[in-house]
Amino acid sequence: MFERFTKDARAVVLGAVAHAERLDAEAVEEQHLLLALLDREASRASFALTSLGLGGRRDSVERALAEARRRGGLSRADTDALSELGIDVSAIVSRVEEAHGEGALEAVHAEGKGAGKAGGKDDGGAGGVGGTGGRGRGWWSGFTGSRRPFARGSKDLLTESLRITLAQQDRHIGDEHLLLALTARPGVPSEVLADHGVTYAALRRVLYGTGGGAAMAG
Known about the structure:
Layout: H1 7-22, H2 30-39, H3 44-51, H4 58-70, H5 76-84, H6 89-100, H7 104-117, H8 139-144, H9 152-167, H10 175-184, H11 188-195, H12 200-208
Helix pairs in contact: 1-2, 1-10, 2-10, 3-10, 4-11, 9-10, 10-12
């Protein structure tokens, strides 16, 4: 699959691995791909993000992602649903951190992502994300030079980016397709992006709309 990736898209994948290593995560998650997308300059994704007003707001995005990690990776939609059942996530986080230290649930979330969802069946097949055999590893293990597995959500995101590329009849998977895939999937990254004015519909208008609003990076 990686042969379809543009230079910018490959840089995002490599950057996501670097962010996972920096945060001492067990696996490469969607949030790491988002952070890597924010690193890009002069790409279609970076121009789209700037057009939607996210330029210069990286600190706000990182704070929101860090807060989600403290909640054990729960999105706000998750916490709202639990609240309707009478479960106060904030109170639970406070009690756990009082007993085990700040970030205790973040550590549990990281272990679960690495040991559980990153493993399992290979996702191989023509055009698929996996295809090299081995638990939790795929073409990226050779491409990135890292033994860190990609979590299930990240692998699904890469597959979604391929679907979006094909639907748009684009020849290659660019970083803009990775960004579109992030906003198309439920979860913390898409929620954080939406809070900052970046939604799937807004991105499509910027990237594929007519007139002067389309992102034109090479």
